[in-house]
Amino acid sequence: MSEKLYDEIPSLDLADFTSGDASKKAQFVKDLGEAYNNIGFVAIKNHGLTDELTEQLYASVKEFFAQPQEVKQQYEIEGLSGQRGYVGKGKEHAKGRSTGDLKEFYHVGQEVTDGDPIKSEYPDNVFPKEIPIFKENTLTAYQTLEAAGRQMLRALAIYLDLKEDYFESRVHNGNSILRAIHYYPITNTDEVPDDAVRAAAHGDINLITLLMGASADGLQILRKDNQWISVTALPDQIVVNVGDMLERLTNNRLKSTVHRVVNPPKELLHTSRYSIPFFMHPRSDMDLTCLESCINENNPKQYEDMTAGQFLEERLREIGLKK
Ligand SMILES: O=C(O)CCC(=O)C(=O)O
Ligand SMILES: [Fe+2]
């Protein structure tokens, strides 16, 4: 394990992996693997999202959250464990806490269009009828981030000495979710619990997360020396990090680094923050049993065998989304 302490997350160019130049490709795999073995986060450019789409998507997301609560509430649907549509303020809390985060969000899931019977496992998406363009913008972003995520997983498969396409069949029509988040303005601090934060410290559940440039500061990650460091991506970058499922599969070789979104200083508490992570999940039957190649004398097997579906179910209960 590399002991290096990063002051900021490493930046990589996804085009180095996809352009067909073998030495650039190999270097990308090495740099990504090293970063994920250490800090678990990278900033990526040439991810495929255009500025135009990003702008339009944020515009429709802002428009959705600016609506009256009664309108948003129509899209909070019972029985879906918050996996589609709107999830209201304070509903989700980090694992191990009970105070809800200071956020509301909207989930868009996989649209299965190729006759794959997995379709019956997924609830249908719900889209706000007040903002027709919301559907097109979120689905286009979903597909673009999913494609970038597949490339990242190809690179990781090589790093892990698996076949380059190891993850392909496992993420095909996977249970990924695009989450548009609004960290809402706080005008009266008496109305929120003293220990409430925008997003309390947590690891992501999924294989990898692709995070579209957040609109304001606040994201921090816990470095291995227990210092919180700020994450800032340049306008043309997205942040891509390892989630708990991949950490588990690799028996902690790839690190799912704890991160949080801190509250802004008092004078900015009345402002909103928006971010749009794409949580890349496999199909629920993916086996997350630690890879043999990641188990050895120095690193004995750390986790019970489990499928992705079982792991997700357990975590949704732990964070208050599943009752
Ligand atoms: O809003 C952000 O910048 C990060 C959000 C996050 O970590 C999450 O939703 O899991
Ligand atoms: Fe997260």
TrEMBL record:
Residues covered by the Fe2OG dioxygenase domain: 173-282
Highest taxon of source? Bacteria
GO MF term (any one)? oxidoreductase activity
Q: Does the keyword Cytoplasm apply?
A: no
Family matches, as Pfam families: 2OG-FeII_Oxy (PF03171), DIOX_N (PF14226)
Q: Does the keyword Iron apply?
A: yes
Alphabetic keyword roster? Iron, Metal-binding, Oxidoreductase
Family to which the UniProt record says this protein belongs: Belongs to the iron/ascorbate-dependent oxidoreductase family.
The record, for PANTHER family, names: FI07970P-RELATED (PTHR10209:SF881), OXIDOREDUCTASE, 2OG-FE II OXYGENASE FAMILY PROTEIN (PTHR10209)
This protein is called what?
Oxidoreductase
